Structures are given as structure tokens and as C-alpha cells.
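This section describes the prediction task in plain terms. A model, or a person checking by hand, is given the sequence of a single protein chain and must write out its three-dimensional structure as a string of C-alpha cells. No templates, partner chains or ligands are provided. The sample shown here is typical of the held-out split.
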Amino acid sequence: MAEKRPDISGKRLSVQDYAANFGDIHPPLDAHEALVESDRCYFCHDAPCMTACPTSIDIPMFIRQIQAGHPKSAAKTIFDQNIFGGMCARVCPTETLCEEACVREEAEGKPVKIGLLQRYATDALMAEGGHPYVRAKPSGKKVAVVGAGPAGLACAHRLAMHGHEVTVFEAREKSGGLNEYGIASYKATHDFAQKEVDYILGIGGITVVNGKALGKGLDLAALQNDYDAVFLGIGLQGVNALGAANDEASGVEDAIDYIAELRQAKDLSGLPVGRRVVVIGGGMTAVDAAVQSKLLGAEDVTILYRRGPDQMKASTYEQHLAQTKGVKIKHWAMPKQVIVENDKAVGLTCEYIRETDGKLSGTGEHFDIAADMIFKAIGQSYVDVLGGKLELEGGRIKVDSLKRTSVAGIWAGGDCVAGGLDLTVASVDDGRRAAESIHQFLTA
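The expected answer:
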């Protein structure tokens, strides 16, 4: 946790302000709004929205089911492809996936609100209680899943559907992975991440063991010996280095750790935040850290990114969201040195950057920016806790199209594998595909 000092403290806003600032950023549709929005769908025969969805949800079908007054049937259509449909409806960058491909977006610049319709349907079915799937007869096979994030739990759920017994090992106190620890609080309110985990586990046949990580109470060889198959959904444990002088000074923190702390905080007013905050990076984590800092009461928040707006991993929508919340985004600049006074960060010395033939170089022109809190949001890296037992590609686990690793009997998916999109929806797709492959392997 950040050290509390006069310029890094909480309790700057009223209780009402904190509640309003961290309320649901996209209020759900009511029944009338859902019917009106579903009526806008053209139900295209080629369904470009469906092609753009990493989990290939039959979007025209579920929207037609909503239009016909059957939102729970629509939810079943969604869950058939994506058991995390509720969270994905809240956090997916639909503006660059299904909604960007929507014909109405092409024709009018106003796509069908697919994400909100998906939330309307999945919320309706989840509110009913129970579970929409029935397990197959017990197969007598056991599968170990390492990591209770979207990839691991999606894999576990599909395997349980097929009648296999699954044990999920999770390093943290709670299951859910980045859904629980790594996204902005205003995107998933009212403890939705844990409610969704409970809903998924409701199928039965899945045992979750918390506090177990590979290399820390968990051995891959032992799992191979004790189980018929192993799936790894271990995510990314490392944080990329900033590479600026004094970057270990007090006041310099990892954005992902701060977001996790915020997500678990019982009282937001007690969470320390700087008056002048700088976030280094250009992805969703950078935006989440910057916007939430502003909502916590920071007076001045700046995102610093070394390239231009078109090259930011954060979508145009997310960039606009940050700016409408009062966050400044400074492009073509990179940190060179953390300015330190009395052993604490007080600012950054930065250099302007230019791009020539795709390569970045400094211009030699420098500037200082005041900051009493600096967040690193420059990406995470895979830490090979397996000691080279699996083949890597591009610094992550190499898998084939069925999510099989280089070692027979071991599958992997999610952020830890090469070629991933680093999106919840993509991790869910990995887990489901791996589960089907594992099922074929176990029943061959």
C-alpha cells in the first residue's frame, strides 16, 4: 500500500461522492429499453458481429430471443459459448469487437447495444438462481486446473458438464482472476465477479483449493501423476520494468497491484491516492488506474504514453472515458528519471519521442512533470515457474489450436499462452476449447 503522507491520503470526498463515482458506469437496460434496442437488429444472415466475437456467440439469435420476450433463452444461447457472458457483457471492449462490426455502426455510426443486451439477458437468468446446465454421468476421470481465472474456470465448467471431476488450484484468496482483482470497480459493481464465480461453480463437480500456486505448494509432476489431464491458466505474474532512473523510489507502484487493492477495499475513502498522479502506459490497465485515481479524489492525473493515440491498446472509447473524467493523456513522451526528494518520488523527467520508419527515438527535448504518485502500467510478463518444462514462444507457453502444450496431457490457455489477446473473452474461449480437447483425449 502507498505510504500515507500529506499529499497521499484518503477521505477527500464525501461518502456520497465515492458512491456516485464508483457506481455502475453502464446502468442496465430495463425490459422496455431491451425490447426497443433488440428491435434495431437487422439479424444479418452473415452476422459480422458473431464473426467478431472471440467466443462466437450467436448474437443475432440471442437478440431475436430477447425481441420475442425470452431473455432467459437468450442467456442460455450466450452461456453455451461463453459461461462468463455476464462479466464479458460488462468488461468486453465491444466497441472494437462485435459492435464495431455491426451493420448499423457501418451505416449510421450507432451500433446495436450488443453488450448491454447481453447483460440484460444474462442478468435475467442469473437472478433466477439454479444452474442452466446438467452434468453428464460421472466419467471417472479427474482433471487438475491451475488458476481460477476466466480461462481456468471456463475450462473447469465445460469439463464438469462432460461428467469429469475437476480440482481447481488458485494462488489467491478469491477465485476470478483479473475479473476479481484486475478491472475497474465501476465496471463490475456489487461484487458481481464473485457472484458469477459462484454461479459457474453451481454446476457441481468442481472443487476449488485456494492458496496453492505452482512452485509454492503445487508441483506439476505431481499433478501429472495424480490427475488424468492438467490445464494451466496461470496468467502473467511479472511486471515489465520501467527502465527509468530511480524507478524503485517510494511513490512508484505497479498499477495492477493498486487496482487489486482498490477492488478489495471495504472503504474507498481510506485508500490513499496522490494529489498529482502520473500513469505510465497506454492500455486498459493504465486507463483504469488513471480514471479511478481521479474518482478517488486526485486533483491532477496524467497518462504518459510513448506513442500516439492510434497505437494505444486502450480503445478510443476508453481514451475518451478517461478524458471525460478529467484525465490528461500526453503522447509521444517517455520517462527518463524519477525525481526524488527526501527519498520520495515528486515527479518525472521525461523526453519527447518521435517515430521514424517504425522505430522510436528520443528528440533530446526534456520536460518535468510533478507527481507524488506514479503508476507503472506498461504490461505484464510471463514468469516461467515451470523451470523450462514446457516449450515457450515469444516468452509465453506455446500451444496449438487445441491449446495443447509441448507435453502430452497438459493444456494451457489465457494470458499465459503465446498469441493471446489479453482479454477476458479470449481467455474464456481458450478454456472452453481446451476443455473440449481434454474431453476428447479422456474419452478416446
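For orientation: The radius of gyration is 23 Å.
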